[in-house]
Each structure stands twice: as structure tokens, then as C-alpha cells.
Design brief:
Elements: H1 3-16, E1 34-35, E2 41-45, H2 50-55, H3 62-73, E3 82-85, H4 99-116, E4 120-124, H5 126-132, H6 139-142, E5 147-149, E6 152-157, H7 160-165, H8 170-187
Parallel strand pairs: 2-3, 2-4, 4-6
Antiparallel strand pairs: 1-3, 5-6
Helix pairs in contact: 1-4
The chain binds uracil.
Amino acid sequence: MTTKEQDWEELRRRCENCRACELHETRHRVVFGVGLRTSPILFVGEGPGQQEDLQGEPFVGAAGHLLDDMLSIIDLDRHNCYIANVVKCRPPGNRDPKPEERYACLDYLMEQIRLVEPKLIICLGRIAAGILIEDDFRITKRHGQWVQKNGIWYTAIYHPSALLRDLSRRPETFVDLLSIREKALEVCPQVFQRETVEI
Ligand code: URA
């Protein structure tokens, strides 16, 4: 095993044994992340919902099906990007993760970012954007805008769950998706060509 593979295994083990916040008391499964660990594109959601908690994989419920459709519009999928969440355990009743839960889980996300080494990070919704782009991120105002920090390009789009509730946000999200495709073509065109590996 390479050092990186060992680091991934160690990180997964730490997540699966984590009891750093109260979410561990109600979780069924830790939802670590899925996709291509070497992808230049990382999507970050908020936290697992009911289906994810049962299946142990991010975005496998209704919002996940919409996310798959959104990815396919721009020739991406779970095999050429990596998908993770801010918190790895389900907040009961799908409430927002509390600030202390977000921060208790932050090291795991930061380690995933270090290991994936993405060129683009796409925040799905305001919670991920508030952690990774800027505190109190206003998604209605700033979705689709790009910022570069430490060599990584960041943007945020509406969370798929929000798009399930509010169809009126879909046209602007389509524009944001095209902007992601354009940025990927500029920064990491190999993502569309590379032979992909399922992990
Ligand atoms: N919503 C999220 O933010 N993440 C998931 O994994 C599922 C739904």
C-alpha cells in the first residue's frame, strides 16, 4: 500500500470510530465519501440524510438522484469526481448540523481535501460554502461565483435538496453548472478524458 492509501485507510478508520460530537449517538453508518480519490473535482455537501445514514454513501436519496442528473449535464459522475460532506453523521430529522458539529468534523474534511488535492471544490449549499469559502456565505447572492484560495478554485451552487423544493432556482443552477464545466475545461480538462476508477 502507498503512503497515500494508508492515509486514506487511517482517515476512514478514524471517521468510523469518531465520537467527537453527539451525532455519533444516533447514526447508523458513518458516511465517509465516495468517488475517485485522485479527482481534480471535489463536491462537498452538508451532511447525510436518512438514506445516506442507512447506506453509508453520500447523496443516494432523492437529492442524490438530482445531483447525479446535475453532474451528468456536465459530463461528470461519481467515477470521475469525489463527493464528501461537511459532517459525516446524519443530523437527526435532517436539521442543519450545529456549528459545534461542523467544527468537530472539520479535520476529516480538511484531510480529505489534502489527500484528494482537488483543483476545484464545489460547495453544495450554504453550509459547505460557509465552512470552505466564507462565514455567513449568502448563497442567493454568491452562487456561481469563483474564488481562488491556496491554489484551489471554489464555488458554491444551490444544494440539490433546495432545488427539489424550489424549482425556480433551477435555471440559475444550470448556468452555474455550465460555469463549472468551463472552469474544469480550463483548469483540469483531463477529468473529462481520464480513464476512471471506482473506489
Ligand atoms: N445532503 C447532503 O448534503 N449530503 C448527502 O450526502 C445527502 C444529502
